[in-house]
Amino acid sequence: MNKVYPDAKAALDGILRDGMMIMSGGFGLCGIPETLSDAIRDAGVKDLTFVSNNAGVDGIGLSRLLETRQIKKMISSYVGENKLFAQQFLAGELELEFAPQGTLAERIRAGGAGIPAFFTKTGVGTLVAEGKEIREFDGEKYVMERGLFGDIAIVHAWKGDTAGNLVYRKTARNFNPMMATAAKITIAEVEHLVPAGEIDPDHIHTPGIFVQRIVHVPNAKKHIEQRTTRKRAESAAS
Questions:
Q1: φ, ψ at 128 (rounded to 5°)
Q2: Given this model, what pLDDT does residue 221 score?
Q3: Which CATH number fits domain 4-216: 3.40.50.300, 3.90.1150.10, 1.25.40.10, 3.40.1080.10?
Q4: Are strands 213-216 and 183-194 parallel, antiparallel or unpaired?
Q5: SS3 89
Q6: pTM over cut 0.85
Q7: CA 238 to CA 232: how far, in whole Å?
Q8: Per-residue pLDDT tens over the stretch 14-40
């Protein structure tokens, strides 16, 4: 089975449709599958639900799909860097399901493991728990959270082989490994594509069994959300 596709458009061909739930890896702008998310934008599908820690920043990442009004709902834990996200939510144009970051990660992990729901203390007594089942265990209250499983997952990896085995680099690992397990079809964009068998099995983060399609993206952009530099000292000479 050939998993390698010539570009992102080809890798998404035949599987996109309106109303899908899409899992999108990354944290802020670190490790986001930008090439694939741009291809989804270009495909024009709409009424999408995206599961992602956030929606990038204005003009980068999933924010580009907010610009084209293709996203109907976000399931996220942080939206503070994106003015367009806030504007659409406050105007009632975008549905938002907030999840504490650890809970979001566990919901994704649970979905990938075939676990439909679990109980956690996080969020009990807050807005997060509204409308959800509360149960008591050993004298403590817990809220039930549902696992998340998408139609497709898009992830970004530093290295991958033609069998779909993936390696993420440092903090760009973030949500990507969990997302890769939690969808019917997983598509990975990889910076370095190597032949099957070249990656040390002990170094593999996502086994190829979870990945159905691969796109080689050798010149992936590495954005910086906020660049903070020390003010340059004024010259003594005037």
A1: -60, -30
A2: 84
A3: 3.40.1080.10
A4: parallel
A5: helix
A6: yes
A7: 15
A8: 999 999 999 999 998 999 999 999 999
